[in-house]
Amino acid sequence: MTRTALFCSRLVAASWFNLAGFAAIVINAITLGLETYDPVVAAAGPVLHAIEYACVAYFVVELLVRFGASGSAFFRDRWNLFDLVIVAAPLLPGVRENVTLLRLLRLARIVRTFRFFPSLRIILIGIRRSLPGLGSFLLVTVLLLYGYAILGWMMFGEAYPERYGTVGQAMLTLFLLLSLDGITDTLQAGREVTEWAVLYYVSYMVAACYLLTNLLVGVVLTALQEAHDETRGAKASEPPLHEQLARLHQLIDELERRLPQTGKQESLPGPRTMERELLKD
């Protein structure tokens, strides 16, 4: 390991390095928010642009330091590839001229905060693991909405064509009712058409608003628990640094005992020299 790589490794391992990266992301996000206010842009536009350039410069330096510490292994880390795309994309022709795309890329830098906090990474892994379950949940939700939309069209299509005139309008109305906003007025309006509206809306609230919501919470919590167990198992499988050093010292002592105790021992490197050589390898 060269001196440059060793220096970069120490920088990456330092706690303040991640804190500085997080601070740069927060400052960049605040700057992006301030640019939405026209009076602020008119008063401090050049300052905001200077802060943006400073943040980009820091992100580039951070990537170079991480590359110097990891070498070719830098491209095997997904977070490093994500950071590289986010930082390098605004420099490409055709992208830097598109203001909307540039703002989206600047907004995507906020996602980089996930790499600095393990708890946020667990949430991200949990979201990724919950995608198959969410697909099944969405399918059940669509089927439920479609079934109740057909019934709503049959019961209220003529009385309220703006809400239940078609299956699509009925599904949209029922989807908006998932938040239970205005359910009292809707129920009262339905009772003016038919008394079966009470059974219709009550059964819909139980099935869609309560059962489906609990099902969604269960899917997400299960995925988060699996992600937490996976992360904890990965940490448990990797021995701590002090155990690795203890095994290295034990290996060196074992080699010293097996070496012949002759005059050739004077020309052999000492244990600390051997340890440094092994660490370099």
Description:
There is one protein chain. With 281 residues, the chain is mostly helical. The chain has 3 domains: 3-116, Voltage-gated potassium channels. Chain C (Four Helix Bundle (Hemerythrin (Met), subunit A), Up-down Bundle); 121-237, Orthogonal Bundle (Helix Hairpins); 241-280. Helices cover 77% and strands 0% of the residues. The protein has 12 helices and no strands. The chain has helices at 3-13, 15-34, 38-70, 78-88, 99-108, 118-156, 161-164, 167-176, 183-191, 196-237, 241-258, 271-280. The longest helix is centred in the last third of the chain and has 42 residues, at 196-237. It is flat and about 95 Å long. The N and C termini lie close together (7 Å). The model is unreliable at 262-268 (pLDDT under 50).
Describe, in short, the structure shown.
This protein has 281 residues and is an all-alpha fold. The chain is 77% helix and 0% strand. Helix 3 crosses helix 4 (78-88) and helix 9 (183-191) runs antiparallel to helix 10 (196-237).
Count of discrete domains: 3
Structural class: mainly alpha
Uncertain runs are 262-268
Average pLDDT level:
79
Quickly give the CATH architecture of the largest domain: Orthogonal Bundle
CATH structural fold name of the largest domain: Helix Hairpins
Percent helix, as a range, is: over 70%
| Helix and strand run | HHHHHHHHHHHH
Count every beta strand, where a strand is a DSSP E run of 2 or more residues. 0
What spatial form do the alpha-carbon principal axes imply?
Answer: flat
What radius of gyration results from the CA coordinates?
30 Å
**Major sheet details:** none
The percentage of residues in β strands lies in under 5%
Per CATH, the class of the largest domain reads: Mainly Alpha
